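Schema walk-through. Below, the input block comes first and the output block second. Nothing else is stored per chain. Lengths vary across the set, and this one has 349 residues.
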Amino acid sequence: MYVPPVTRLTAAVAGASGYAGGELLRLLLGHPSIDLGALAAGSSAGRRVTDLHPQLVPLADRTFVSTDIDALAQADVVFLALPHGESGPIAAALPPGRLVVDLGADHRLADPEAWSRYYGGAHSGTWTYGMPELGDQRAELAGAKRIANPGCYPTGVILGLAPLLAAGLVEPDDVVVVAASGTSGAGRKPSDTLLATSVMGQLSPYKVGGVHQHTPEIEQALTGAAGEQVTVSFTPVLAPMPRGILATSTARLVDGATTEVLHEALHSAYAAERFVTVLPPGSWPQTGATAGANTVHLQVAADQHAGRAIVVSAIDNLVKGAAGQALQNANIALGLDEAAGLTAIGVAP
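--- output ---
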C-alpha cells in the first residue's frame, strides 16, 4: 500500500544561544515533524552550539550563524528568542506569510503607552496572544502568522486567576502576586546579582513597587477574563535555583466562595487540558515537579479568615514559561498535534 511521504517542516531560531533559545533547540530535536534550520545567535555567531549548550550533543557539528533575515526566512516557522526591543525590527523584515513566534515581549501588549512606560522605546504592534488555555485563544492561534508568546511570570499567574475572575468568584481590584523565579529567568547575560555568591543561600526581591515589566501583561489578560479592569500588585523574587517559578496569587473573595467552589472553577476550566493540572485537594504545587515539562500545576484555597482566595502555581520558566509554550503555539498555528515534541511529565528530584 502506498504511504505518502511525511512533509517535514523547518524551524529557525534567532537568539539560539540564550537559555530559552537552547531549551527550544532541545524540544525541537524531539519534534516528529520539524527539523532545525538556521540557528542565529548574533555575537555568538561562529561558535559551536555545544560551546554554550553542551547538553545538545546532536548539534555538536552545528555552529551559530549571524542573524540574517534571508537565512531565517527560509524556514517554515521562525522563533525569536531575543531580549525585549530586539524582535520588532527583525519580525518586520520577515515575509508576512511566514509564521513567527516571538518569545520576547515586543508584541504582547495592546497599549502603546504601557509598552513605553514599562519597556521604553517605540511599540512594535500587537500580535495574537499565545496562551492556548486562556479563553478562546486556540481559535485565534489556529492559522495565525504572528504569535506573541506570553512571559514566564504571567503564564502561571494568569492561568491560576483567570477562571476565578471569569466566574466572578474574586474581586478584580485587589489582586496581589508574589512569585519566586530561578536565575535562568534573567537570561544568560552576566550580572553581579546573578553570581553564585550573590544568589546561593538567600531569596531577594527585585523590581518592587509595581515596576516589573510583566505587570501590564498580567493585568491585560486578567482584565479580558474578568470583563472589567483588574489591578495587580506584583512582587518578583529571585530564588537560588536555575529554573522554575512558584507564584502565590491572592484576591478578595466574593461572598459564598469556598475552597470547594474555587477548586471546582479551576477543575472545570482545565479538566480537558493536557498542559494544565489542577492538583487534588491537599496537594500543593512544587517547582521540581514541573522541571522540564510544558505544564502548569495549580492549587487553590479560600482563606476565610482574611477573606481572600489563594492560588499557587508552579511552572518551568524555560518550558511552559517560554520555549515549550512557543512550540505549543507553533504546533497549533501549523495544524500539527498541539503536544508534538512536548511532555507534561516533569523531572525530579
